[in-house]
# Entry
Amino acid sequence: WLAVRGTYSRGFIAPSFAQNNARSINEGFITQVTPQNFQAAHGNDAYSQPYTLAVITQGNPKLKPEKSSSFTLGTVVQPTDWFSASVDYYHIKIDDAFTQADYNPAVNAYFAGQPLPAGFTVTPDQPDPQNPSASLRPLTVSTQFVNASWIETSGVDFDFEGHFKFSNGIEWISSLQPTEIFYWREKTQGGQVQSFVGTQGPYQLSSGAGTPRWRGTWTN
# Structure
């Protein structure tokens, strides 16, 4: 009624056609807040207030495959024929993970009047009707898919399951499966390590569903 189990695995995934085809373009939108000096130059009018900025990501033929390594270690306990429980620790690391390049340095450089980082293009908006001679806000920022340094996550999966049979032929199966995520972090090309556990990110992967520290399902 007791078992100990573990796995170790390695894998890779090639970039998709949308990620490595130079003609492939993905577009998303964010709310951009302009710097205070930009707002002051425009007299704090509507043009200088938060607005919708288009982020365009193009396929990159130079993308390398993602490579992963992972291991698990856990135990299964089934002391009776109607109840079983398991707990498994997992650790996953992905190198050269596919991601969108961080557009913030390009937008910040544009507002500061500095040269854009390599690989970025910014298209300016139309002039401010109330201040036509003032600097233009960025309308779009374009970049490519890139390989991030690494993505790493670790946590524990639990599984509790009960099978209940009644004399009238009815059977009830109840399963509870919670997960605790210890960490979910990503190292970007710039060397910054971002941690997402307990936040709403990474938005591109979760569509805003977030990365809660605890999550689970109960099925009956």
Remarks:
- The first helix runs from residue 17 to 20.
- The chain has a mean pLDDT of 92.
